[in-house]
Amino acid sequence: MERYxxxxxxxxxYQSRGLISIRNRxxxxxxxxxxxxxxxxxxxxxxxxxxxxxxxxxxxEENFYYIVDGTPADCVHLGYHIILKGKxxxxxxxxxxxxxxxxNDIFYSGTVGAAREGTMLGIMSVAFSPASSKNxxxxxxxxxxxxxxxxxxxxxxxxxxxxxxxxxxxPIEKVKGFLLTRQGRSAYKEEIKRYLSPSKExxxxxxxxxxxxxxxxKGTDYTAVKEGYVSITPIRLDLTDYRGIEIMEKFDFxxxx
Length: 257
Fold this sequence. Notes:
Elements lengths: L4 E5 L7 H12 L3 E7 L18 E5 L3 E4 L3 H12 L7 E4 L15 H11 L4 E6 L7 H18 L5 E7 L9 E4 L7 E9 L5 E9 L10 H6 L2 E8 L5 H7 L9
Parallel strand pairs: 1-2, 1-5, 2-4, 5-6, 6-7, 8-11
Antiparallel strand pairs: 3-4, 7-11, 9-10
Helix pairs in contact: 1-4, 2-3
């Protein structure tokens, strides 16, 4: 039986329940898992790489478990180039994230950023997240994630495309199936909280409240998880709006003086 090599990363840190769940599931099913995670919660770090200071890799356990004092994309970069010495793994798994990565979340998410970095390095990559951070069933999600990972390893992915997978936050036995979806729009109530320190200094905390109750378009990631399906959204590295180019050719930019 062929043993597949998995590079496992996340953005919530090495103590994340979602990470531990998918890691255990993969190991139990005969995968060789190389885990490289940030040493703390790095949610919202997107696809950032650390250029302003040196990075440190620390071995947490003997069985290929490492932590990095950097971003999720740093973990991918160092995992591939340093720990694996440039030997490409069969697949990169990012997650399972603690909270959702739906719609516009993909631009902020460190989990999705890690999958994007893996794709840029030529590694088939999948990002996994729950639809809600409220009491997620990570064991059930890891069972579903394993099915997707096996399918990707068997069938492959289109060139320069990775998957953003979101699980509905319901018991696994109630999941209706898997749907290919497109990226939805933001469904969060944006919020900035103002705090006053004992020394009267003002601070602000940026956040947003989960709000999947609003009406969502058919075929989107939001609608899929709301209706009890696992959402599988293919994401391209190329963000160019080719239709936009056709429209804007009429603007005559070349003749701007």
